[in-house]
Amino acid sequence: MASEPKYWEPSIETMSLEEMRKLQLTRLKAQLKYVYERSPFYRKKFDEAGVKPDDLKTLEDLKKFPFTTKMDLRQYAYPHGGELRCVPLSETPYFHCTSGTTGKPTVMYYTRNDQEKWANIMARALYGSGIRKGDIMLNNYANGLFTG
Fold first, then answer.
1. Are both 94 and 148 inside the same structural domain?
2. 65 by DSSP, 3-state: which?
3. pLDDT tens profile 96-145
């Protein structure tokens, strides 16, 4: 019987801190550029803060960029993703909505790629905590089965 791999995604889980920071910076740069070019909300928010995606030269520079708050998500995501959306609604076959117990429900839309990435992240977290194929677990994530 073959032994189980120690890691779900060894290339990510075993990289050095320096490699991880380099990867984080690369991905953050790409994400900031993506949302700036595609989302009216983020373009306005960055412009008001006086920052452009290219201003991110180091991870420390991230503090120059404005945060997205839950209130932003509630205010600007209606209807159907509103000004936050970066892709056409037709490219977001999945959505998740919070219960709204602390106010207006927060709606988030996902592309197929978003959902695949989220599933991999969750699988990595569960695998890292010892869950393996065939195991039974209690899903007590507040988001239910969709997000998990």
1. yes
2. coil
3. 887 778 878 888 889 999 999 989 998 999 999 999 999 998 877 666 55
Domain limits at 56? 10-67
Q: How far apart are CA 79 and CA 55, in angstroms?
A: 31
Task: Say how far residue 17 (Cα) sits from the centre of its chain.
Answer: 21
Within a 10 A sphere around the Cβ of 77, how many other Cβ atoms?
Answer: 22
Residue 62 shares a structural domain with residue 101: no
Q: Which residues contact 108 (CB under 8 A, 6 or more apart)?
A: 73, 77, 95, 96, 97
Give tens-digit pLDDT for 58-73: 999 999 999 999 889 8
Indicate the pTM of the whole model.
0.84
